[in-house]
Design goal:
The complex is a heterotrimer of chains A (486), B (486) and C (108). Chain A has 486 residues and is of the alpha+beta class. Chain A is 40% helix and 21% strand. Chain A folds into 3 domains: 211 residues, no CATH class; 111 residues, no CATH class; 60 residues, Arc Repressor Mutant, subunit A. In chain A, helix 5 crosses helix 6 and helix 12 crosses helix 15. The chains are: A alpha+beta (486), B alpha/beta (486), C alpha+beta (108). The complex binds magnesium ion and zinc ion. Zinc ion binds next to loops of chain A.
Amino acid sequence: MENLEYKIIVGLEIHVQLLTKSKMFCSCAISFGERANSRVCPVCVGMPGSLPVMNKKAVELSALAGMALNCKIAKFTKWDRKSYYYPDLPKNYQISQYDLPLAAAGFIEIPLENGQTKTIRITRAHLEEDAGKNLHTTGNFSQVDLNRAGTPLLEIVTEPDLSSAAEVRSLAVELQRIVRYLGVSEADMQKGHMRFEPNVNLHITKDGKEYKTPIAEIKNLNSFRAIERSVDYEVQRQLDEFSRTGITMETGNKTTRGWDDDAGKTVLQREKEEANDYRYFPDPDLVPVEFTDSWLAEIRAGLCEMPIKRQLRFVNEYDLSDYDAGVLTAERTTADFFEEAVKSGGQSKRVCNLLTQVGLKMANEANCSAAELGITAENLAKLAKMADGGQISATAAKTIMEKMTQTADEPKVIAEQLNLIQKNDTAELEVIVEKILAENAKAVEDVKSGGKKSKAAKGFLLGQVMQKTKGRANPKVVAEILERKL
Amino acid sequence: MDCNCKKLRDDIAAGRIKSAEAVEAVFDTIEKNDSKIGSYISTFKEQAIANSKQLDEKISTGKSAGILAGTPIAIKDNMCTTFGATSCASKMLENFHAPYNATVVEKLISAGAIIIGKTNMDEFAMGSSTENSALLKTVNPWNTQCVPGGSSGGSAAAVAAGMCSAALGSDTGGSIRQPASFCGVVGLKPTYGRVSRFGLVAFGSSLDQIGPITQNVTDAALMMNVIAGHDPADSTSVDEKTAPVCDCLEKIDEPIGNLKIAVVPQFNTGADGDVQKAINEAIEVYKKMGAEIVEIDMPHLEYSVAVYYIVATAEASGNLARYDGVHYGHRAEDIENYIDVYCKSRAAGFGKEVKRRIMLGTYALSSGYYDAYYLKALKVRNLIRGDFLRAFEKCDCVLIPTCPTTAFKFGEKMDDPLKMYLSDVYTIAANLAGVPAISIPCGFDGNDLPIGLQLMAPAFGEDKLLRIARMFESKTDWHKRRPPII
Amino acid sequence: MPRFFFWMAEVMSKKIDAELVKKVAKLSRLELTETEVAEFANQLSAILDYVEKMEQLDTTDVQPLAHCLPISNCLRDDCAKPSLGTEKILENAPDTDGDFFKVPKILD
Ligand SMILES: [Mg+2]
Ligand SMILES: [Zn+2]
């Protein structure tokens, strides 16, 4: 294949399922994995005579997300019907927003691999209802389950500002972090809470001229891996196709493609010769939404520092590695918990280690967040202080922290109960050291002779002391005494 | 037995008549006459008698039986009921059993009404003669050669023929007032948003409104007291704060002082000679009562039919998309693929007029035509509304004929849809402007067919509108005439 | 014949031809016979001819009016209530497969 110079152009359409208890326009509960067609009512089945009523929370969550994405929130928005026939769409129109989206003209900052950030423009974000699900059986028929029909979705559309598969992935990860931070969505990819549709094409320079390949829209991606791989694949495919056929945006059609994860390929679904005629018009069953300043202020109060900013601040303010800062800021509650513990006097690196090495592991096992383990920030700070002060060993700190999830006792009390307080009493330790030195003349000699054996002998003696004290001696103190005596 | 609603209610509540007797008497009339008239698609004799006996029981123990206390009421078959089918006079929904009651049905039942049956109509309320019913033919009780009007033809005929105390109809472009006029009864279309549409099978959602068809104005007031008010299940029903519900009955017999009535000369002169004459006489009646008559110009009203047949059909094309043979309703037999389910089921389930309107509405919304038709219609709609706002600055109400003609013969307009549409010329404007309008009997033509007088008032002014109507009624006895068939 | 103060345009232009009727029928998911196509082409053309009287009005500065209501923000609190349930919802279904609505295989 010829070596072509090209730029990758990607814009995203993203559907985010909002974290509400009930559906967008009816009171059916949102829940996953229920019996088919059990979470439905006349409204979400589109029965004759039924009418939609807006879910206030969904409107507020959308505005909040819009604010977090630096969008202008429309003072006045309305609902439109988008018409198309499909068995999972019970009314054969979707209630959506067309010309007056709830939020528009914003941006999102995404981290790049080189440590810098890039700004991706957000075209618009609007609220709409989800469709149900068509299931394709092995027989010559399909099944329709409407449990999902009417679930509130935020559709976010970006400008085509992304220029690599890695950037697309980074945006996806960052957006997940943001919506989780704000409680806008659970953003569980496996449950389809976030679905991505990249629009990909290339600007190829050949013989000093620029060619644009036809745009391919990849439908319904719901894993970070699939997002990255499908865009990578599509780039190669379009390069290939251009080399072979020379087809460009002007001569070819926009296509819709699906992602076959097993084959690692995008597959042509349909060619959009004529754009779908969705016949949008204002939904006469609903009234407009008008945001007053006070309502917007109320919603705005739900905003918080965005994860990417917080991560950077953690690196600078708490002297953490970028990696650790990333781990701590992945979830808002964990980051809050960390900062509270630091405010309560815990040394930042120590608190970070306790959280990342012990806390998050336990949280993962308990299927909750680190902040929900039952440990107060004050006690975590106290534990960190004990470890820092040498009152307990690192291993003991882990044991104590585990115990702290089961009792409200202070770490000191637990340490005492478990006999984990280190011996820092120099006088007492000196007696023990004397005794060990006396018992191990050979080793003492090795130390004194210097050379290769010296270090090993020192370690041996330290080990003997620790054994004698059943591990409760502060190794730092013991080492000091040994140094002095030898 | 005189089954006039208010009087019957008073008699039942006072124990002078038993509800069960009244209901049985009405069923006697139905059994005697409805085979000739064809008002009812379905009746619920057993249930009705059982319910009325329960009410009698309640009354005999001194408990309140509600403000409709055991009176037999009919409803149009486009309002959902958990009993019987809700067919909309369509093959599509012939066997559709709604899993819920329309809000108005719930309100009627809790007011003590006995729902005796569901009345015939033009399919999906599309028509002006009830000839578009796919299930039944209804004739005008005054002359069986003539149509009862439509689309609430069954309700109007049933009230005129004494086959219920009162009935509910729905009015999108005159569907309550026009049949009321043709059948010599009272029909009120309330302000848009005054009565809940929840459970009313939608035709043109921004125009549809449920209202009473009764033997006299007082009964219409009584029915309004039952059905008016905000419904949290209908976003387009107006809340109490914006427009408090008034007691329509309280002052029904008190004339309005300093009454100013607007007449629109070009409307009157457009009507048949007999209609013109009756309207002029009605104006004289008001003058004699001291009303001031003001001639006004409403220049945009002549565009009503044009606007209506775009707006209503556009909305209908969306509202009727759900009838696709997938989740409920008629499914055609000869299905080969899932697209067939749609196209063939809809072809078989819908009648000609419904198809025609779906086609027109789809066309008006489709890409390339939206601006010229739909958007333009919405703008002209605003001008029409402006005409009303200006009229109501000067006057209490607008007085015009309900229809340019009296009831026409079967088949007369069936092969020319435009001719049929134009017969709604006087009623449509009130729907487009959202204002309340009433039709009351005001005379007969040379063939002894009733003529209707239409009064329109400012939004949410039903109480006043009814009083103005009652002023006329109290000075005339047109409403007391009964059709020869009974 | 009532003397309307306006009357339909006498000119019967072909606003909509058979091809356009078929296109709209496809969008509407209506299977039409050839007779219906011809009939609708005539009738819809006549209606549209009439409707175009709207063009007589200058609406340059007029806002479109989709609704006459004086209200906005009709909102519901986010509370879940019991649903109808599978059996009840499938009662009206023309064809079912277990807990599902059933349709011929969707090929897309
Ligand atoms: Mg969408
Ligand atoms: Zn529901």
